[in-house]
Amino acid sequence: MRICSLVPGATEVVAALDLTDQLVAVSHECDYPESIRHIPSVVESVIDQHGLSSDAIDRAVKQLVSAGQRLYRLSEQRLIEARPDVILTQDLCHVCAVTPDQLTQAITALPSEPRLVTLNPTSLDDMLLDVARIAQAVGAADRGQTLLQSLRARLAHVSSTKRATRPRVVCLEWLDPLYIAGHWVPEMVALAGGEDVLGRHDQPSRETTWKEVMDANPDILLIMPCGYSVQRTVDELVRLESSRTPWSAQLARWPETYVLDANSYFSRPGPRLIDGVELLAAILHPKPSHQLNPAEAVRLTTAALFVESRA
Questions:
Q1: Tens digits of residue pLDDT in 49-92
Q2: How many whole angstroms separate alpha carbon 308 and alpha carbon 222?
């Protein structure tokens, strides 16, 4: 079977089903696991997000959306050359990936019409159900059930752990402007033994203010900008430290602030959301012997931010 995945999380599901050899096309954001990076991309972003700050990205996205323009270009020629039997796409976030309506014209040009699987997960359970849907669509239903059982068992292990306290948590999904994380993130925090005091389960992320964050009085602040790695987030915080809104003054209000790898463990509705729940549990209820992997999460101190911003 020839599979085209236009969603990074779906690509990760296909890889977890051990069907990487059947992927014939992916999106520009599909970069995990390493074994799929040679597969041709049929999508490119209109905005060069890698070279822009968070506020510049926000302005560019809003300008394109208000003008009714696309955020992504789909290469019809490369899609035709891929000749997919199945196309995995999404209709959850028009800022994140190509949407089904963009595929209509390209699909009509294909020699035979592929099966279109549209994903719209807004919760962890939706993501797990999509694992089964994807597996069924690519002819690997049995493998899908095996993967599902493994993911559910890991979730059950984390959520069943007895904990004396549930720290109050605020999760920030964007830096400038500030956004509260939504969809599956509040559910992940709850399963990990915390209470997301501003996020709402199964609801989209939303813009917020420092006043709302301060009024919520969290014990722990988690910084997880959508699509950002730990290092990119730290670099952006350093930039913001020298801007109109110094972050050190805000971060000094909370004894515990962490920067997390959102791109791997929180932004993409795929199997690694379970890794994200396990990471949250390690942060919210640390064991004396546990050391965080700095590629996954780092504890942020105002002193470190102050020093780096002047380096």
A1: 777 888 888 887 778 777 766 777 888 889 999 999 999 998 76
A2: 20
Q: Which long-range contacts (CB under 8 A, 24 or more apart) does 34-43 make?
A: 36/11, 40/78, 40/82, 41/78, 42/4, 42/6, 42/74, 42/75, 42/78, 42/79, 42/82, 43/6, 43/72, 43/73, 43/74, 43/75, 43/97, 43/98
Q: Quick one: pLDDT band at residue 125, thresholds 50, 70, 90?
A: very high
Query: Which residue in the block uniquely carries the two structure tokens 């301060």?
Result: 214
Task: Please give the biggest Cα pair distance in the chain.
Answer: 60
- Given a cut of 60, is residue 297 above it in pLDDT? yes
Reported as type and span, the H/E element at residue 13 is helix 8-16
Residue 92: how many CA atoms within 13 Å on its side-chain side? 28
Degrees (nearest 5) of the Cα angle 289, 301, 256? Answer: 60
pTM (predicted TM-score):
0.91
User: Which residues on neighbouring strands pair with residue 3, listed in sequence order?
Assistant: 23, 86
